[in-house]
Amino acid sequence: MLKRVKREINALASRSEVPEVFTISKVSKYIPDIANPKAPAGHVAIVGTKTYGLSGSGKMRPRMFLPIFHRTLVEEHNLGCFYYQTCHDLLNDLDRHLPYRLAVIPIYGEDGVPVIIPSSRVVRRIRELHPSCIFANHPDAAQVVRDKKTTNSLLTRKGVPMPRMDLRVVSGKIFSNARFGTKRPAYVTDSARLDEARYNTEFIDTRYEVEGVEYYCSLRALAVGSVMLDLWPRFRPVEDGDPSVHSKDTPRSEFLLNKFYSEVALPLRRRAESICSKVKDALGLGFLTLDILYDHDRDELFDCEVGFKFADHTWVEHCGDLWKEVPWLKPHSSYAIARSSANAFAREVLSPNVSNGLMQG
User: Which of 1, 231, 261, 355 is the most exposed place for a label (fewest CB within 10 A)?
Assistant: First the structure.
């Protein structure tokens, strides 16, 4: 009996902390104290989730993003900003928005555990009542983006260069990653040791040599719709034995950060912008990151992964303090990304040719 009680106590102690339940009143400490326009060009509804709100999904840190994003939309683009706990709450208050052009920004984690994606039924009902409503990060797109295999298939059909999944036509190494989720174990293997349940593609050789040392390098693009806000390098030594590169793997070296940016990222900006535009055409309007691989020998770019994200705060935490020696980091370590994001979003929303944000199958 005593042993069983101890086991239960230990099990309780080891559980992860339950996230604090979000309430809409907590948003007030992030947003600027400015009135919405009296004659707005449109409305923007920023919508959280019942449990995680605006800050628990890994997609946005409200304190760092919302103040400038909100102020820019209101003061520079004459857009009114409104906040809701859930899409159900927006639906219940929809009459307020019917006379205006409405853009909805739901904030949620399509790749987290558990997956929390707004109800497509509620979203469809909002659009039935407000047919011109524009949705960013549409739930239908989330169901695609959360599955790397489905993403690859769709984007390949839409002309986005993706690593090949048809391993019958692939010779050499194979890159194996988890089909769902982010920052999961990945490895290079061969066809004889494949796990078919994983996301398996041809291996893209991204090695780049600097002063006799080889590095794996990937490029991260941050985009709003078809507008690419920035493209920057993330890299790690080949001797680490892992071709999967994340922000925290990148050496905090001013020399290397400037070297990779000037020699790899900058020359490829135009081509990366073209990829961002094609992804927007396929998935609809969204706040996205794209992880792009460059094969130097073949001179080819490949989009290996897509996710919803408003700003890469992990990157800022890792090396944003180096901006004085690495000037291209400054927009990330300041609030400039939030302002650029608001400007790009406003252009998409206010464009006379704007689509409804729905993905194109």
Answer: 1
Selection from 357, 353, 360 nearest residue 123 by Cα = 357
Sign of CA pseudo-dihedral 300, 304, 310, 316: negative
Half-sphere exposure of 339 (CA within 13 A, CB side): 9
- C-beta neighbour count of 43 within 10 angstroms: 24
**Per-residue pLDDT, 19:** 38
Examine the pLDDT at 33 and tell me if it is beyond 80. yes
Instruction: Tell me the C-alpha distance between 133 and 126, whole Å.
Output: 8
Side-chain-side CA neighbours of 322 within 13 Å: the count stands at 17
pLDDT at residue 5 in the model: 38
Number of other residues whose CB lies within 10 A of the CB of residue 98? 12
Q: Which helix (H) or strand (E) holds 177?
A: strand 174-177
Written as one letter, the residue type at 20 is E
In the chain, what are the helix, strand and coil shares in percent, each to the nearest 5? 40, 20, 40
- Residue 272 neighbours by CB distance under 10 Å: 22
Over residues 276-317, the pLDDT tens digits come to 999 999 999 999 999 999 999 999 999 999 999 999 989 999
Closest CA to 291 of 258, 338, 243, 252: 243
Helix (H, G, I), strand (E, B) or coil at 23: coil
Query: Per the structure block, which two tokens stand in for 286?
Result: 């969204």
